[in-house]
Amino acid sequence: MAKFIMLTTLTDEGRKTIKEHPERIKEVNQEVEAMGAKVLAQYALLGPYDFVNVLEAPGNEAVSKVAMALGSRGTLQTMTMAAMDIDAFIASLKK
């Protein structure tokens, strides 16, 4: 399975939802898993992004589906990047 980093920024509506219902964060994680990706790690951030998630998914199509579904709600914006295990990266350089 491929790994991805998803940086998330909440919109005003998203901040309001999280403030009123903080447990919504974990509910969204369950929805992400129902779409075919798995949340391996999640952190709240200070700075230009509100959350960073490490996801595992079968490929680009699956994680794109997640990003589009979440973004279409109007409560957050995402930036998603493919991630490679450092040992796999080093091995690829030796080929």
Plain-language structure description:
Helix content is 43%, strand content 33%. With 95 residues, the protein is α+β, with helices and mostly antiparallel strands. It has one domain: Alpha-Beta Plaits. The protein has a four-stranded antiparallel sheet with strand order 2-3-1-4. A hairpin with a 6-residue loop joins strand 2 and strand 3. The model has no long low-confidence stretch (mean pLDDT 96).
Q: Quick one: CATH superfamily?
A: ACT domain
CATH class: Alpha Beta
- Average pLDDT confidence is 96
Helix content: 40-55%
Structural class, by secondary structure, is alpha+beta
User: What's the alpha carbon Rg, rounded to whole Å?
Assistant: 14 Å
Tell me the count of domains: 1
Strand/helix succession: EHHEEHEH
Q: Low-confidence spans: pLDDT under 50, at least 5 residues?
A: none
* CATH fold category name: Alpha-Beta Plaits
Judging by the overall fold, what is the CATH architecture? 2-Layer Sandwich
Question: What can be said about this structure in brief?
Answer:
The chain is α+β, with helices and mostly antiparallel strands and 95 residues long. It has helices at residues 12-20, 24-34, 60-71, 86-94; strands spanning 2-10, 38-44, 51-57, 76-83. It is elongated, with a radius of gyration of 14 Å.
Main features:
95 residues; alpha+beta; Alpha-Beta Plaits; 4-stranded antiparallel sheet; 4 helices; 4 strands
Would you spell out the secondary-structure blueprint of this structure?
Blueprint: E1 2-10, H1 12-20, H2 24-34, E2 38-44, E3 51-57, H3 60-71, E4 76-83, H4 86-94
